[in-house]
Amino acid sequence: QVQLVESGGGLVQPEGSLRLSCAASGIIFSIFAVAWYRQAPGKERELVASITRGGTTNYGDSVKGRFTISRDNAKNMVYLQMNSLKPEDTAVYYCHILLSGYWGQGTQVTVSS
Questions:
Q1: What pLDDT is stored for residue 37 in this prediction?
Q2: Contacts of 14 (CB under 8 A, 6+ apart)
Q3: Side by side, which strands form the sheet with 107-111?
Q4: Is the dihedral of CA 106, 54, 25, 103 positive or negative?
Q5: pLDDT tens digits for 8-56?
Q6: Of 13, 4, 72, whose CA–CA distance to 36 is shortest?
Q7: Are 110 and 90 in contact (CB under 8 A)?
Q8: CB of 62 within 8 A of CB of 49?
Q9: Beta partners for residue 38, in sequence order
Q10: What is the rounded CA–CA span in Å between residue 4 and residue 103?
Q11: In 1-113, alpha helices (H)
Q12: How many CB atoms sit inside 10 A of residue 78's CB?
């Protein structure tokens, strides 16, 4: 049974930082590209960042230069370091194994003063 479990969300002030983690189990994690998506209320789910099995990264335009995606294949983990957070980054953040139907349950990130 494949499981993706996100953690690390919370309430943070503008310009603050958070680090999201996604723990994968039940799958040979290292052979897949993995991504973080987010969905704000009333908006479509959007790609935040992705990372291939070889470590090549890609970012949505709105987060370039502020967010960093990384992975630890030995631990079956993927991370999202989020810096210089803005109120518009407020959303539920999801971990997703690309080209699969596997999604995590999401973790809420709220950026507010």
A1: 98
A2: 85, 86, 87, 111, 112, 113
A3: 10-12, 107-111, 91-97, 34-39, 46-51, 57-59
A4: positive
A5: 999 999 999 999 999 999 988 888 999 999 999 999 999 999 999 999 9
A6: 4
A7: yes
A8: no
A9: 46, 93
A10: 6
A11: none
A12: 29
The residue written with tokens 């052979």 in the block is: 31
d(CA 71, CA 54): 10
CB 47 within 8 A of CB 60: yes
pLDDT tens digit sequence for 49-85: 999 999 999 999 999 999 999 999 999 999 999 999 9
Q: Are 85 and 17 in contact (CB under 8 A)?
A: yes
Amino acid at 15: E
Give 11's contacts (C-beta < 8 A, 6+ positions apart).
110, 112
Q: Which residue has tokens 């109120």? A: 87
| 63-67-70 Cα angle (round to 5) | 135
Q: Is the dihedral of CA 36, 38, 44, 47 positive or negative?
A: negative
